[in-house]
Design brief:
binds cytidine-5'-monophosphate
């Protein structure tokens, strides 16, 4: 069975519902970025066939950020469907769905990849959405500092067989220490020093996140909204390799 080494580097978030627009963005970053992240906006508009139409002819690993969260049987079915249809390199599910859900997703992905003769995706767990602060968490019945919940869910994700977690740049160092070198840490909330912060609240530069222990650094608009997308992606990759 083919296996995956740990995916790394700059993954560009392509957040648009529009297939031609997404194609333009991907064409611009081909050969520079380490991969492309497609999320719910593109997936809900274009479906799995839109994802494969976009990625099948380009040699860019796909991070499919669809954050599945349901009962284990349903998530396992959804994982089978997207793995078969889109062959992602990285796939997200919610760690708060619990151990049985994560295990079912992991088993479904390995079985499906095996049947297809491809490498299974690295499934990573979403712990606590960074849009929620401690007061929001309190209102949904979750007491205590959010970092405690992040660490608890990250440990559960890895114990349940996932490759790692998605986390904020400010959680990377503690999660790297908790989970060890093998865990895959995928980090959005990234802004190069020369780019607009926009609606992101707490950001790090790509190089800072990498130094803190990030494997995959995710950024979108600093590249997709740049006048010269390729140059913006090249600049980020150069900054990251300088930290080596
Ligand atoms: O354009 P920007 O760099 O802000 O895009 C970041 C991407 O990472 C978006 O697709 C966003 O949904 C995602 N993301 C994030 N923060 C999280 C989780 C995911 O910005 N905590």
């Amino acid at each position: 069975m083919p296996t995956n080494s740990k995916p790394q580097g700059l993954f560009v978030a392509v957040d648009t519902p529009c297939l031609p627009m997404a194609k333009d963005m991907i064409t611009d970053i081909r050969g520079v970025a380490g991969g492309v992240k497609l999320g719910l906006e593109f997936f809900s508009a274009q479906g799995p066939s839109g994802v494969s139409a976009l990625t099948q002819d380009v040699d860019l690993p796909l991070f499919l950020d669809v954050k599945f969260h349901d009962i284990p049987n349903t998530v396992a079915g959804a994982v089978r469907s997207v793995v078969a249809a889109t062959k992602p390199r990285v796939l997200t599910i919610h760690a708060s769905g619990g151990a049985a859900m994560m295990r079912a997703a992991q088993v479904a992905s390995v079985e499906t990849a095996d049947e297809l003769g491809v490498a299974p995706p690295a499934i990573v767990g979403v712990t606590v959405l960074t849009s929620l602060d401690d007061a929001d968490l309190d209102r949904v019945g979750q007491k205590g500092p959010s970092l405690d919940q992040v660490r608890r869910l990250a440990a559960l994700a890895v114990e349940s067989g996932l490759a790692g977690v998605v986390c904020s740049p400010f959680e990377v160092a503690v999660l790297r220490a908790d989970l060890g070198d093998d865990a895959l840490l995928v980090v959005p909330g990234i802004r190069p020093s020369w780019a607009a912060v926009g609606d992101q609240k707490r950001v790090m530069t790509p190089a800072q996140a990498q130094e803190a222990g990030a494997d995959i650094v995710v950024t979108g608009r600093p590249v997709t909204e740049a006048e010269d997308r390729r140059a913006a992606a090249q600049r980020i990759v150069a900054e990251m390799s300088n930290t080596g």
